[in-house]
Amino acid sequence: MGIAQPNALQDLYSQMAVRMAAEPPMDLPGLRDMLEGLQVLAAEPTDVNYADVDAGGVHAILVTPADARTDRVIVYAHGGGGVTGSSASHRKLAGHLAKAAGTQALVPDYRLAPENPFPAAIQDLVAVHRWLRSEGYAPEATAVAGDSAGGNLSISTVLKLRELGEPLPAAIIGFSPWLDMEVAGETMTSNADSDAIISPEVSGMMAAMYLGETAPVEALCNPLYADLTGMSPLFASAGDAETLLDNAQRIVERARAAGVDATLEVQPGQQHVYLFMAGRSKEADETIANAAAWLKERLGR
Amino acid sequence: MGIAQPNALQDLYSQMAVRMAAEPPMDLPGLRDMLEGLQVLAAEPTDVNYADVDAGGVHAILVTPADARTDRVIVYAHGGGGVTGSSASHRKLAGHLAKAAGTQALVPDYRLAPENPFPAAIQDLVAVHRWLRSEGYAPEATAVAGDSAGGNLSISTVLKLRELGEPLPAAIIGFSPWLDMEVAGETMTSNADSDAIISPEVSGMMAAMYLGETAPVEALCNPLYADLTGMSPLFASAGDAETLLDNAQRIVERARAAGVDATLEVQPGQQHVYLFMAGRSKEADETIANAAAWLKERLGR
To answer: How far apart are CA A74 and CA A142, in angstroms?
Structure first.
C-alpha cells in the first residue's frame, strides 16, 4: 500500500498537479472529487465515534474519541481553498487531533465558493460557534483549528466573533494556513520547486473563486492585513518545502507584534498540509502531538 | 443538506450520468474520484470503531460496532464495476450492515481493473478469507456481502473457495449484484428509463475493463453461468427501477434450482445500490434490517 510510504503525500500531490495542468482544464466537480482523495492518506484513528449533526443549520460530523472530554471541542475547518474539501476529506485528520488533545472535534461542511464566496464560510462558522454555546459548550473550552483555507477560516472566524462582540474560543491552530490572497510572499517563489501542489496559479485560481468580488487585502479574508490585537492564542505549522511557508511565519510574527501568544512549528522537508499523513508519518504525528499539548495548556476548563 | 432527501441518490446518479456522457470522456482517475463521492449519502453509523488492517497482504478497514460479536465477521466487497470504489466509499454502508447484524465487517481494498483485471480481485478476496482463518475466525461465523460488482465478487469468491476445497462462509449477501457480463437481460432494456446510472454503455464499459481478456460467459466472472450447487445461502436485493434488477432475480432463481437456500428482496422505486442511503432512507434501512436478520439465522456460531 503506497499510502504508508513516506513520500505518499508528495506523490499524490504530484499526480494531482499533472491532472490540474492537463488540457482541457479539469472542471470544478472534477477538482472537488480529486481533492477529496487526499483522505486516503491518513490512518484510521481507532476508538473514535462519528455522528452527523446539524450544527446551527450547518451539517457537521461530531468526532468523539473514546476517552475524550465531552465538554471540550475543536471546531475543525477543513481546507481546500474554500472551494473544495468536506467533513469526509478531513474526518480522519480531525480524529487524530481530537484524540491527541483529549477533546471532541466538530467538522462543519461550511458553504463553498464560488457558489458561496467569502464571507459565506465565515458566517457558517459563526453559526457553528453560536450553536456550540447553545449546546452548553463554554467558549473557553472551545478551540478552532484548520488546515490551509481552514487555517484562514479559523483565524477569520475568531476575528469576526471579536468584531461581533461574541466570546472567543480559547485557541487557534492553523496547519499550513493559506492566508495571502494576493499570492505574494517570498516562499511562493523560493519554494516553487519543492512544493508539489501549491503553485502561484493554483493559489490564484482558488483565491479568485473564494473571494468573488472581495479585494484580496480585506482583513477578514486575508488575516495578514488584520489587526490581530486581542486574538486568541495561535499555533501555526508549515512544512519548509511549502510555497505557503511564509504565510505561517508572517501570521505568527504579526500576532506576536500585536501581543498575541503565538507559536510556530516548521517541519523540515514537509509538503502542504503534511498532516494528511496523520498516523502514517513521524512529522504529521509530531505536529499533532505538539499542537495538542499546546492546546491543552490553553483550554480554560 | 440534500443528502437527507429521499431523491438524493437518484439526483446524484443523474448528475454523474451527465458527467459521464460529456465530451471529452472522463478519464479513469476522474471516474474513480467521482464514484467515491457516493460515500456522502449514508449517515454516519454511530458507535462503530474503524481500524486499518493488513488482511493477508490486502489493505482493509476492520469495522467493529460497539456491541458486535468479535468472533463474527462479514467480508464486505465494495462495488464500482471492479474498476472503482474503495473501503472509503463503502465504510459507512458496511458499518450500518455490521451494526444491524451484530458482527464485525472487513472492507478490503482488493485490486482494481483494468490495471488488475479478473481474477485479481477474487484472488485478493481468497487471501482475505485465508487471513481470517489464520486469525481464528471460523468459516461458519463468516459471511460475504457486497453491492454491485461486490455482489458478483462475493458469489465468485465463494465459488472459488469451493473449487479450491477450502471452507465456505456461512452466507452471501448481494445488494444490487452486477453479474451479467454480457449486458443482456430483460430489465437492462425495460428499466432503461427508470435507472439513473446503469445504462448498457456504462455496464459494458465496466465489464470490458473488469474482464480484460476473459470471456463474459466464464462462470467465475459471470455467476449466471456457474454451477451453484453447494453454494452458501444467498440473500439478494435490488430496486425495481434498476436495469440490473433481473441480475438479482436470475441468480436467486438459479440458486434455488441448484438447491441453494436463496432469498430475493425487491424494493419498489429504488435505484442501483439504494443501500448507499443507509441511515437516510426507509428502503435502505429495511433491506439492511432484513439482510441482517436473515444473516443471523445462518451464521453458525
So the answer is: 6
For residue A300, which amino acid is it? G
Task: Tell me the CB-side half-sphere exposure of residue B103, using CA atoms within 13 A.
Answer: 30
Amino acid occupying residue B102: G
* Whole-number Å distance between alpha carbons of B294 and A270: 50
* Residue B261, pLDDT above cutoff 80: yes
**What is the model's pTM?**
0.97
For chain B, percent helix, then strand, then coil, each to nearest 5? 45, 15, 40
- In this complex, do B49 and A52 lie within 8 Å of one another by their Cβ atoms? no
Query: Does the active-site annotation cover B272?
Result: yes
Distance CA B64, CA B73 (A): 9
- Give the pairing of strands A142-147 and A234-239: unpaired
Residues 38-57 on B with a CB inside 8 Å of A are 39-40, 43-44, 46-52, 54
CA distances from B201 to A151, B20, B21, B116, B260 (A): 44, 10, 10, 21, 32
Average model confidence (pLDDT) across chain A: 97
Within a 10 A sphere around the Cβ of A67, how many other Cβ atoms? 8
Summarize the confidence of residues A151-172 as an average pLDDT.
98
Cβ pair B237, B267 in contact under 8 A: yes
pLDDT-derived band of residue A1, with 50, 70 and 90 as boundaries? very low
Q: Are B157 and B132 in contact (CB under 8 A)?
A: no
* Strands ordered across the beta sheet of B69-77: B48-54, B59-65, B103-108, B69-77, B142-147, B171-175, B234-239, B262-267
Region of B173 (left: φ > 0; alpha: ψ -120 to 50; beta: rest) is beta
**φ, ψ dihedrals at A52, nearest 5°:** -70, 135
Among the listed residues A86, A272, A281, A283, the single catalytic one is: A272
Three-state SS string across B223-239, please?
Answer: HHHCCCCCCCCEEEEEE
* Amino acid at the residue A17: A
| β-sheet bridge partners, residue A76 | A145
CB atoms within 10 A of CB A293: 12
Shortest CA distance from A35: residue in chain B = B33
Residues in chain A closer than 8 A to B109 (CB atoms) = 1
Q: Is B148 annotated in the active site? A: yes
Burial of B194 (0-12, 13-18, 19+ CB in 10 A): middle
Taking a C-beta distance cutoff of 8 angstroms, is the pair B293, B97 a contact? no
Note whether ipTM > 0.90 here: yes
* Active-site position among B176, B272, B281, B283: B272
Helices B120-134 + B149-164 axis angle, to 10 = 60
- For residue A48, the chain B residues in CB contact (below 8 A) are 49-50
Which residues of chain A are within 8 Å of residue B30 when distances are taken between CB atoms? 26, 30, 33-34
